[in-house]
Amino acid sequence: MSSHVADEVICRTCTVCGTALEIAVTTDGSLEGGGHYFGPLFAHITDATESDAAAEYWECDECFAR
After folding, report:
1. In a domain, 1, yes or no
2. CB hemisphere CA count around 45 (13 angstroms)
3. What is the pLDDT of residues 48-66, one digit of tens each?
4. What angle do CA 33, 5, 3 make, to 5 degrees?
């Protein structure tokens, strides 16, 4: 962990196994602990719904290590 203070904690779900993730967002905007972020799932789809556009791909440490 860095010396930055967590500004907020966001809750997400591992896309692979469904494990609940808690990720600290530091004051400088970096993410610490809890999982690995790969980006939006449907960024390439131009007619994606609003809920599709908000979908993100996250993996827990265990799934990331596989």
Report:
1. no
2. 12
3. 666 665 688 999 999 999 9
4. 80
Give residue-wise pLDDT tens across range 25-48.
888 888 888 899 998 877 666 666
Positions of E strands within the chain = 6-13, 20-26, 31-32, 36-40, 56-59
Give the number of domains in the chain: 1
What are the backbone dihedrals phi and psi of residue 53, each rounded to the nearest 5 degrees, phi first?
-65, -30
Please report where in the chains the tokens 């896309």 appear, as a residue.
15
Which one, of 64, 66, 65, lies nearest residue 15 by Cα? 64
Q: What is the C-alpha separation between 32 and 25, in angstroms, rounded?
A: 6
Domain that holds residue 10: 6-65
